Amino acid sequence: HDPEGYGNDGYSRVANALRDQNYDVRTLNLAITTTVPSDAAVVVVAGPQIEFMEEEVTRLRSYLLRGGKALIMQDPLYDAGLNDVLSAWKVRFGDGVVIDPASSLLGGVAAPVVSGYRFSQITKDLPMTFFPLARPVEQIEEDATGMLTFSPLAETTGQSWAERDTEATEVAFDEGVDTPGPLTLMATVEAPALLDSDEMAANPGLKMRVVLIGDSDFASNEYVGSLGNGVLFLNAVNWLAEEESLIAIGPKTTQPRYVFLTRVQANTIFLVGVILIPLALLVMGIIVWWRRR
């Protein structure tokens, strides 16, 4: 996603929101630079579609190992090699497309909606969010040293699954093939930085921080104004940059707000507003008419 792109798939709206919070937003090409700039507060990897070169993987991994901060988002249907970067911390982006019939936007079971979160500074008081097309985030194995912290923040319901047949026109859970839910859509990873003794003395307690999200379109110009999507993106960046004080300051916007309903919510409103209330009025009218007779 282009931070200067103004189309539906661009990131210009979140880039401008970051500038409003005094961030300097620049593009970074790890194929032509040997290191991440030392003044980079956060590196954002927003849904790459082309596989990273070996040099890019090495440079991004090295940046994180030395206490870097990154928001990494990877969409389903693409494999850019980010799992090679993340393997050092025993996490990965899982296979398949997340399907959640119990909590998804009306008309699309592949657009999971999250209304409850694990506690975090990122998700504190966060409104409902949704992810237009997502893949799971997985912890490969527990960290025996206890120094690595993997924290799932947003999860699907128990009726969800990761559909492995991404070309199917109709989806159904296949036992032994698909991954059953609940599935993690967003997680954070924290681990001590690997520095030499002098650097450690100069930066005591330095940690790498990563936020992993199995979708990047949620923050695109098309969807960032929907529900709490934009707040989620900004909260994640501020937490990574260790600017937690900015999380409590909601972004100002003049964009129109839209109401999105899950299938259950839409059915409930239809049942109450279209059937139950008119039916109750009809019954009351009949009772009044009968008594007046």
What order do the helices and strands come in, and which of them pair?
Layout: H1 12-20, E1 43-46, H2 54-65, E2 69-73, H3 82-86, E3 91-93, E4 97-99, E5 113-114, E6 129-130, E7 137-139, E8 149-155, E9 161-163, E10 179-180, E11 184-192, H4 197-202, E12 207-213, H5 229-240, H6 263-292
Parallel strand pairs: 1-2, 2-12
Antiparallel strand pairs: 3-7, 4-9, 5-6, 8-11, 9-10, 11-12
Provide the succession of SSEs: HEHEHEEEEEEEEEHEHH
Q: Low-confidence spans: pLDDT under 50, at least 5 residues?
A: none
| Major β-sheet annotation | 5 strands, mixed
| Strand content bin | 15-25%
Task: Indicate the CATH class of the largest domain.
Answer: Alpha Beta
CATH topology-level name of the largest domain: Rossmann fold
Number of helices: 6
Task: Give structural attributes.
293 residues, five-stranded mixed sheet, 2 domains, three-stranded antiparallel sheet, alpha+beta
Task: Quickly describe the structure.
It is built from six helices and twelve strands.
What does this structure look like?
The protein is of the alpha+beta class and 293 residues long. The protein has 2 domains: 12-246, Rossmann fold; 261-293. The chain is 25% helix and 17% strand. It contains 6 helices and 12 strands. It has helices spanning 12-20, 54-65, 82-86, 197-202, 229-240, 263-292; strands spanning 43-46, 69-73, 91-93, 97-99, 113-114, 129-130, 137-139, 149-155, 161-163, 179-180, 184-192, 207-213. The strands form 4 sheets. A 5-stranded mixed beta sheet has the order 1-2-12-11-8, sandwiched between helices. A 3-stranded antiparallel beta sheet has the order 4-9-10, with no helix packed on it. Strand 1 (43-46), helix 2 and strand 2 (69-73) form a beta-alpha-beta unit. The N and C termini lie far apart (70 Å). The relative contact order is 0.17. The model has no long low-confidence stretch (mean pLDDT 87).
